[in-house]
Amino acid sequence: MLYLTEEAKLGIVSGAIAILILMVVCMVCKLSRLHKQPAYKDSSYLKTTADKNTAAKVSVIPFPSFAAECSECELEKRNKMNGEIELQTSQRLSPPKNKGRIKFSMVYQNEIQTLLLTIIEASQLVGKDFWDSVDTYVKVRLQPDEEGILKGQTDVFRKSTNPKFGESYEFNMSLQDMENSILHLSVWEIDKYSRHHIIGEVQVELGHVLKADESVAFDKELRSFQKARNLSPPLSDWNTESKPINPFIKVVLLFDGKKVKKKKTSTRKQEPNPVYNECMMFDVPPDLLHRVLFVISVADAKSDSTRSDVIGRVVIGSATTGESLRHWHQMLISPRRPVAAWHRLKL
Prior knowledge:
SNARE binding; 4-stranded antiparallel sheet; Immunoglobulin-like; about 25% helix; repeat
């Protein structure tokens, strides 16, 4: 009978345990290989990475239907996320409708025939880069002003959308001249390149709101006025005596050369430098912008008949050239932002 020492027995037991552990590890590895799925999900991966001969010999294991459902869920989540990002971006980058407000007060001192104007403050100003604070000042002008002396300008207020000006101006004029005058205030900003841009304007007819020795305060919203200047009578009137004109603007939308829609402004009677603040909306899909043209005509409305004579016109669109095309391109690269430019009228 064979007798083993304690050390020998311990060595045999340890060896058996090690062999058992090794067998278990090998079985686990083999089972994991059998259940492991291929890295690709469909045959498109194989067709793009292998040649025609090898791709035909490889068998593709189809995944169950839940894979398509997951991809649809993922696509829906992605579209929802993109929509939220686009909404947030448009809300942040679209220019606000309001340009801000301005507070000022006036009093006409009848005894010394002087109009006292005080620019108090502006608030909620929106500059060209409308998320930044701005350097602003206010221009003051009274019209009519044949001598060019009824004007002024405040100091520049730095880095604020709510500047406190607190500056006063005195204009010597008779009561009758005051009642026939129009006060024009314009708020300007200075950008980092020292360029000056108008933020908004206010116009007040003094004869309608101001009386002698009565102080009046105003809190008005700034507006953007679209203007025309240096308008002349139509060609048919050039050989006759000088006449006042009654201009209005007509806008025609052309699609592939065909008239689709037309709109026009109100008429400014006997005004060679009319001011317009009228908005026209035209619904044009972005993918069709290259096929449209806008014909903008300035016409003189005859007071003694229903007809009108064209003073001049401008055509704007992708098919134009020169300043018209430059203005169109600036509009395309500046979505949701108004782009203004002067154009020379042509017949």
